[in-house]
Amino acid sequence: MSEWTIDTTVGELLRREHGREDGARITEGWPDLDLGTAYRIQDALLARKASAGQTVVGVKLGLTSVAKQRRMGVDVPLTGWLTDAMALTPGEPLAVGDFIHPRVEPEIAFVMGARLSGPGVTAEQAMGAVQSVHAGFEVIDSRYRDFDFALPDVVADNASACRFVISGHAVPPGGLDLAAESCRLGVDGDTVDTANGAAVLGHPANALALAANGLAERGLAIEPGWIVLTGGLTDAVPLHPGGTVSVAFDSLGALSLTGTH
Ligand code: OOG
Ligand code: MG
């Protein structure tokens, strides 16, 4: 494509998503794509999904842990939108063939009890707006070949968002030590990684505050009832048909996700 605009980029990213096809970085053809414009692309992509009937159910953070930043080669956290069409119910399998190259990552998820509106939100204020804490999995599926992107590319691509699931077990935030909360990630029963909540910007509440303050720059807030995924604690693992990825947290319980054809 010769002329990249917000509209043509949205069209191209949706074409890849629907066609299960990856492609080159947008910044290859649009090298001066800046972060502000990339978020406008992300919002325009959401508007297209909303006009197709999807509703926003929350927000995700990405690249909040060193494990993720290192793997993706981008060390700036970002946010993306979660819609109802992305939600899996616990136990529901993932039809791997419906996606490009899905990977699964364990996350600490919040369900919000109160509105959280920046700027200037502190981690303490952020935690005060949380209704419950859950074990979560995010399935990411970059619309870029080999997950190869620069920051503006991945922002435009709604932070590689694809599917997510949170456990039905709602843990009240009071009494939890989320920095110390540890998880064990398993693939087909073998432990492949471990991490604790401190991996996420020192504490997942810092990620929540960052999201609220970042959205405020776009005139937006985190709304009651929304789900917030605070970012992968470990590197993501590929999901294959017949494979199972599982996570066991100390206090938040366990989750597993099985791939089918
Ligand atoms: C970008 C999204 C990162 C996380 O939890 O860090 C993300 C990617 O890795 O493709 O969702
Ligand atoms: Mg994630």
TrEMBL record:
Keyword field contains Mitochondrion: no
Domain of life: Bacteria
Alphabetized Pfam families for the sequence: FAA_hydrolase (PF01557)
InterPro entries named in the record: Fumarylacetoacetase-like_C, Fumarylacetoacetase_C_sf, Hydratase-Decarb/MhpD_sf
Leading EC class: lyase
EC number: 4.1.1.77
Fumarylacetoacetase-like C-terminal domain: residues covered: 58-256
Record's keyword terms, sorted: Lyase
One of the record's GO cellular component terms: cytoplasm
Claim: Membrane is one of the keywords in the record: no
Molecular function, one GO term: 4-oxalocrotonate decarboxylase activity
Protein name: 2-oxo-3-hexenedioate decarboxylase
Species of provenance: Actinomadura luteofluorescens
Organism lineage string: Bacteria, Bacillati, Actinomycetota, Actinomycetes, Streptosporangiales
